[in-house]
Design brief:
- The chain is an alpha/beta fold.
- The protein has one domain: NAD(P)-binding Rossmann-like Domain (Rossmann fold).
- Helices cover about 45% and strands about 15% of the residues.
- The chain has eight helices and nine strands.
- The strands form two sheets. It has a seven-stranded parallel β-sheet with strand order 3-2-1-4-5-6-9, with helices on both faces.
- Helix 4 links the parallel strand 4 and strand 5.
- It is globular.
- The chain starts with 6 loop residues before the first strand and ends in a 7-residue tail after the last strand.
- About 45% of the residues are buried.
- The mean pLDDT is about 95.
- Bound molecules: nicotinamide-adenine-dinucleotide.
- Nicotinamide-adenine-dinucleotide binds next to helix 1.
- The site of nicotinamide-adenine-dinucleotide has 29 residues, from helix 1.
Length: about 260
Amino acid sequence: MRLKGKVAIITGAATGLQGSVMGFGGAAAWRFLREGAKVVVTDIDSDSGQATVSQMKTSGFDAEFMYHDVTNSSDWERVVADTISIFGVPDVLVNNAGNSARFNVEETSEEAWKQQIDVHAKAVFLGSREVIPSMRMKGAGSIVNVSSIYGLVGSPTVTAYHAGKGASRILTKSIAVQYAKDNIRVNSVHPGYAVTPLTNNFFEESEQRKWLIDRIPVGRIGSAFDIVPAIVFLASDESSFITGSEIVVDGGVVAK
Ligand SMILES: NC(=O)c1ccc[n+]([C@@H]2O[C@H](COP(=O)([O-])OP(=O)(O)OC[C@H]3O[C@@H](n4cnc5c(N)ncnc54)[C@H](O)[C@@H]3O)[C@@H](O)[C@H]2O)c1
């Protein structure tokens, strides 16, 4: 029960249906519940979000689904206010929502650029701005930002994704320094290649799979269950002396 009594908001967590491939947010939500937290699952995918939360409730857990576009400030206001009225002040915010745009520089439209920066960077700013006042009044909080190894190193494509994930990493450190004295910790997790609903089709393709596995020192592609423990650790009080830091969970890719 490493998160006993904590209230957590996890964005982009709709993909947590038992029996299907889970995303990081959905798998994290289940793990948070099993560790004793109350969890607000948010996403733009209401059907999957409702179905996931319905399984969680049937299993006896305290979970709620809320529709939430993380790029929209009024959605953030509503989600945080409703979380406070249902479960209480959030102790943990996991900024996990995201998607990808596989374009090199010349192929990247201004719309794709904006969408990627909004979902990966602006959302971290909006979410932090919304939860910090109540966390400060409570005297504690942990914000975990799911960045990527693509926020640390380059690759042949996903230009705007790299920019957004890099921004999420440095924004993490900026917010951490600003609010350390308020006992609000902010850290980033940098997953490597993992099979989730976002990557499943792409990683299944055999040439792509071989290219990936050749790049991963441990010799396998990860899953959400490889990434979630780092999120739980940063959310929990076990990491109380860790802020403005980053955990890379990638089977050794960026160590090379
Ligand atoms: N899978 C990987 O290999 C990998 C590697 C590094 C980082 N990541 C990052 O991990 C995070 C989770 O991705 P995942 O692979 O678990 O995929 P996923 O598709 O399971 O999760 C992403 C979720 O975000 C939601 N979402 C997208 N835009 C949104 C918005 N504007 N508002 C709210 N929700 C929105 C989607 O509906 C989806 O449910 C993402 O930020 C992704 O960039 C994934």
